[in-house]
Design a protein that fits this description.
Layout lengths: L1 H12 L8 E6 L9 E3 L8 E3 H17 L4 E4 L9 H11 L3 E8 L9 E6 L5 H10 L6 H40 L3 E7 L2 H6 L3 E8 L3 H7 L2 H24 L11
Parallel strand pairs: 1-4, 1-5, 5-8, 6-7
Antiparallel strand pairs: 2-3, 6-8
Helix pairs in contact: 1-5, 2-8, 5-8
Bound molecules: zinc ion.
Zinc ion (ZN) binds next to loops.
């Protein structure tokens, strides 16, 4: 099985380089899957705020900004519908996306948890990472885990040299603009085993915008002005990433289908 997967993925990543121009924005969750949620406080009637809704609003703003800049941009969902992780991966395949940007909202049992963080796919073993993975991944067991682990290892090998600098560029834009403007703490750039990133087989990042479980952050993330600022930072980060790739003459290794 491993050799078969190696063959397939090697074909997929084989040497065909181009500057990445197609971006797939992936609003986390949707439809039956609310993602993280929390009730509004001090408001009557109380309202249930859902990760899937905020993720979609921010993703649409990133989509609009990049579409206006001559990139080919797609969304894995443009309204509230259920999209499985394999379906998201299939959309990445169909659209021949060069980059995959997944947008999520964090949650924590600690009501004081704050900050934004940026993940890229890496098979790094860490307790803190595992905690986040649990909320963003599909439950799997037995052989499924083994096969997916092989897939992750192979995809990491092919994408990490692009995903990591992409994460660094986007995160630093968020930190220098949104972080400073709103006084929000950066929780850093982290490796993580997110199957939505692995299955997409693309260089990509998973963004955790802030904590829905923390009132101050929840209110801020519902504010359209904040959503605009965050989306602008992400779009700028992607543009800078492309410029840097061009400047260093190290092209993004992306596959064109054979
Ligand atoms: Zn999520």
């Amino acid at each position: 099985m491993k050799y078969f997967l190696t063959f397939c993925i090697t074909c997929f990543f084989s040497i065909s380089s181009s500057y990445a121009l197609t971006i797939l924005i992936d609003p986390g969750h949707g439809g039956e899957d609310d993602g993280a949620k929390a009730m509004t406080l001090g408001k009557v009637p109380q309202e249930l705020i859902k990760e899937k809704d905020i993720a979609l609003l921010i993703s649409q703003k990133i989509y609009n900004l990049l579409s206006a800049k001559n990139y080919t941009v797609f969304l894995t969902r443009s309204f509230d519908r259920t999209v499985s992780l394999p379906e998201r991966a299939a959309i990445a395949e169909k659209t021949k996306a060069d980059l995959f940007i997944s947008v999520h909202i964090n949650s924590s049992p600690e009501s004081s948890a704050v900050g934004f963080e940026t993940y890229y796919l890496d098979n790094h073993n860490d307790v803190a990472i595992k905690k986040v993975e649990k909320t963003e991944n599909i439950p799997m067991k037995g052989d499924e885990v083994v096969v997916q682990q092989i897939l992750v290892d192979l995809v990491v090998e092919q994408t990490v040299s692009t995903s990591k600098p992409l994460a660094q560029t986007i995160h630093s834009e968020i930190k220098n603009s949104v972080g400073r403007k709103y006084g929000i703490q950066s929780r850093g750039i982290k490796p993580g085993l997110f199957f939505v990133l692995a299955l997409s087989k693309r260089p990509g990042v998973l963004l955790e915008v802030g904590f829905i479980s923390t009132q101050k952050e929840r209110v801020r993330m519902m504010n359209p002005k904040f959503q605009d600022d965050y989306a602008s930072a992400v779009a700028r980060g992607i543009e800078i990433f492309f410029k840097n790739q061009k400047g260093h003459k190290s092209k993004v290794k992306i596959k064109k289908r054979h």
